[in-house]
Specification:
The chain is 24% helix and 32% strand. The protein has 148 residues and is of the alpha+beta class. It contains four helices and six strands. Strands 1, 2, 3, 4, 5 and 6 form a six-stranded antiparallel beta sheet that branches. It has one domain: Roll (Thiol Ester Dehydrase, Chain A), CATH 3.10.129.10. The chain starts with 11 loop residues before the first strand and ends in a 5-residue tail after the last strand. A hairpin with a 6-residue loop joins strand 4 and strand 5.
Length: 148
Amino acid sequence: MKYFEDFPAGLTVMSPPRTITREEMIAFARRYDPQPFHLDDEAARTSIYGGLIASGWLTVAVMMRLLWDALLKDAVSLGSPGSDELRWLKPVRPGDTLRARFTIVEAIPSRSKPDRGVLKTFTEMVNQHDEVVLTMRGLGMFGRRPPG
């Protein structure tokens, strides 16, 4: 297992790739974000996007899964108190393959709870052309390595 101490400021971790399908884009949009440019090819074609795009919230959900796969599954993660500055910079389209780059910006040991610390992170999601489609600043709480 990896602990707070294993994530120094400056560390960057790249996730495995994940391809987004048209079917999952539409299924997600039907349930959570039923705007026409997420659901209907014709409506999307005549929109400012010129074609079907994924909900930004699907992109965030995929980013969370990539965070799990790349970093959290082998770490003593204690959850997150929140995120800031979420930005969707480019549309995600059917067939796009995304990867996430997680950079530790700052590692802050807790003063009041010595068994944990907080990592400030900067996340970038990139598509198959290495274009940044999403950025986000986040906070993650991690357990400290036990003494001994």
